[in-house]
Q: What sequence folds into this?
């Protein structure tokens, strides 16, 4: 009897171990399949917003609704780096409500804390690197979504917004995510988001009153642009420092004139590149000529020429 008990115990032990191992392997396979599916879904949603992850997205939580015309939603992740896929003529909008990020936009880097709204030209070279766990709302909208000059003036520059203001945009986005899918696809939802984001941006810029007349600031800034546009690092910070005003005041002054600092710097560089090409005074490569006009690289110059509707020879 004792021998039978020992035999049964050993036999059961040998039987249990393979079964337990098999259960563990199956559990790991199920977990991996779930994680792969989660990554695939996050990658697809990220792509819908017009972004691509440069790091692992296993911890990315992202939800969105929309169509080819627009996409709106929210995301959270403890870290990560992302690159914009680019959408001809489109507008990306980011609103960080928790955390911090470094945003590199067309060669210029910005340290963006929470409670900042960022309108971005989707054709620009854009990278986002999260420096802390970050919660944010995201929008991908049509090219002509924002025609208000104060909003156009903020494109490419982070705009501080108050919590009681951005929560309105957040509420609309959260409601859209909870609504039936057909409403998320609706063009009317997209227009509502565009109008609401315009209202938030205008309210934020209105909180900062310019200390000098807009036309005087604009005139002085244009002179500063003429002196500085050939330097690739020339931007709103450079021009604001040159005319002794804040970047926000400078942006508002240009908005009052129906334009932006970035647009005027780009226009001046295009004019210079066309002049160099027309006169033929420099027998050099297209890359060298673009650098002489102030562009950071050939890609940036080509995009500017397209926006200006201009053509130029790229070979001697």
A:
């Amino acid at each position: 009897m004792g021998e039978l008990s020992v035999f049964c115990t050993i036999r059961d032990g040998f039987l249990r171990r393979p079964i337990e191992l098999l259960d563990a392997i199956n559990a790991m396979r199920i977990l991996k399949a779930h994680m792969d599916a989660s990554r695939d879904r996050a990658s697809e949603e990220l792509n819908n917003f017009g972004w691509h992850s440069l790091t692992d997205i296993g911890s990315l939580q992202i939800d969105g609704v929309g169509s080819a015309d627009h996409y709106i939603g929210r995301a959270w992740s403890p870290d990560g780096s992302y690159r914009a896929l680019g959408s001809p003529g489109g507008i990306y909008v980011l609103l960080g409500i928790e955390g911090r990020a470094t945003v590199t936009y067309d060669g210029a880097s910005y340290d963006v804390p929470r409670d900042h709204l960022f309108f971005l030209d989707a054709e620009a070279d854009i990278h986002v690197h999260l420096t802390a766990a970050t919660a944010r709302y995201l929008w991908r909208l049509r090219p002509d979504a924002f025609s208000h000059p104060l909003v156009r003036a903020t494109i490419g520059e982070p705009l501080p917004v108050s919590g009681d203001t951005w929560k309105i945009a957040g509420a609309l986005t959260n409601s859209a995510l909870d609504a039936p899918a057909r409403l998320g696809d609706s063009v009317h939802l997209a227009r509502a988001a565009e109008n609401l984001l315009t209202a938030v941006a205008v309210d934020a810029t209105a909180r900062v009153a310019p200390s000098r007349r807009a036309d005087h600031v604009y005139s002085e800034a244009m002179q500063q642009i003429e002196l500085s546009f050939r330097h690739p690092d020339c931007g709103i910070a450079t021009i604001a420092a040159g005319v002794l005003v804040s970047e926000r005041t400078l942006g508002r002054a240009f908005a009052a004139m129906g334009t932006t600092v970035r647009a005027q710097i780009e226009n001046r560089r295009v004019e210079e590149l066309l002049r160099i090409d027309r006169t033929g005074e420099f027998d050099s490569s297209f890359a060298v000529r673009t650098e002489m006009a102030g562009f950071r690289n050939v890609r940036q110059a080509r995009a500017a020429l397209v926006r200006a509707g201009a053509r130029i020879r790229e070979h001697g």
Q: What stands out?
A: The chain has two domains: 46-206, 214-308. Residues 1-15 have pLDDT under 50 and may be disordered. The radius of gyration is 26 Å.
